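Exercise 7b. Backbone tokens:
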């Protein structure tokens, strides 16, 4: 009886030790980190979709007061179409080429909207419209949410990529899950450059170079002669 209990306890201890070893090899940590990154990606998609939904109304409202800005409005519309045509599935988060296409398309839309903001400054009657002002406030809030969502996604991706590359989690990541690194967002072009600030001051013009051939005024003593 005692021997049977010992054997049973030994098997239990062996199973527990094996489970602990597997847990330490990324059985749970890898999929947990992966699902967290995918959830943060869903937030990114939602924020970008919200921005895309606002643009048609923004373009139509702007067109009513700034119909002459056809090119800018067309650029915004085309950039929106290009951005929404690229769908990144969770399986594509490990594909640098697909992810880069998505980010480039979204950056093009961001730039087109920046051009639109610059143009509408020439139309005070448009800026005074309540509908336009409301759309711009919504757009600004949405772009803030995009930045927050991208930051949180990058943090989750960093955690996941670190998990699958670090021992002992790397064992389960490679042998069991076949995990691949996910692609984070890169900084937008020009984000690292400090903005040029002009406070309306200009430096004084440089003094004209001395002319060695100019006549030297006579000294008082010479003048007296």
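Sequence design result:
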């Amino acid at each position: 009886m005692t021997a049977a209990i010992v054997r049973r306890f030994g098997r239990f201890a062996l199973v527990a030790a094996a489970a602990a070893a597997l847990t330490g090899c990324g059985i749970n940590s890898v999929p947990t980190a992966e699902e967290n990154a995918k959830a943060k990606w869903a937030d990114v998609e939602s924020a970008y979709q919200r921005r895309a939904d606002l643009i048609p109304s923004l373009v139509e409202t702007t067109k009513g007061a700034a119909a002459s800005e056809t090119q800018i409005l067309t650029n915004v519309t085309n950039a929106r179409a290009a951005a929404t045509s690229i769908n990144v599935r969770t399986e594509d988060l490990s594909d640098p080429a697909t992810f880069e296409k998505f980010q480039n398309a979204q950056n093009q839309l961001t730039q087109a909207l920046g051009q639109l903001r610059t143009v509408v400054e020439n139309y005070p009657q448009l800026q005074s419209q309540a509908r336009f002002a409301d759309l711009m406030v919504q757009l600004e809030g949405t772009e803030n949410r995009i930045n927050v969502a991208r930051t949180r996604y990058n943090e989750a991706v960093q955690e996941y990529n670190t998990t699958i590359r670090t021992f002992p989690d790397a064992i389960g990541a490679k042998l069991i899950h076949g995990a691949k690194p996910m692609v984070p967002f890169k900084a937008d072009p020009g984000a690292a450059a400090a903005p040029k600030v002009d406070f309306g001051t200009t430096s004084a013009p440089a003094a004209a170079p001395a002319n060695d051939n100019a006549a030297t005024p006579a000294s008082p003593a010479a003048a007296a002669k």
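Instructor comment: Helices lie at 2-23, 29-65, 70-84, 96-120, 124-127, 130-165, 169-177, 220-224. The chain has one domain: 2-188.
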